[in-house]
Predict the structure.
Amino acid sequence: MAATFRLRTAVAGVMTVGLIGVGAATATATTGEPTATADTSVQADSRARTNTVTADREHVKQWEEFRLRGKVTGIKAGTTVHLQQKQRGKWKTLPGTSIVNRSLDYSMRVKLGIKGVNQVRTMIAGEPSNPVTVTVR
């Protein structure tokens, strides 16, 4: 019985090695191109940086505090988050800052004094977020 088990194991091992050899030969014969191009595209996708932000309110009173919460990918924890506001068609950096935590998200308290429709965004490592509209009454 032990001899039968050894024989079956040996036959199964030889068949497996044979199938792996045939599969490898087929893979190299059919591709014709190195697989490095597939690997670089995966690396490029993993390096993609995103920065998205949302405001907890759409309408606030002048100098009333609201919160911006954001999520990043492709950016290291500990990176500084800068607040920007659109003024006269240009993005101006405001004094408010925050830091990306190890969960790759951030939160910042904001107070705006310019009445009307305001657009704010965050800037992290040169990556701007989507603009968020907040109306100050």
Observations:
- Residues 2-31 form the longest helix (30 residues).
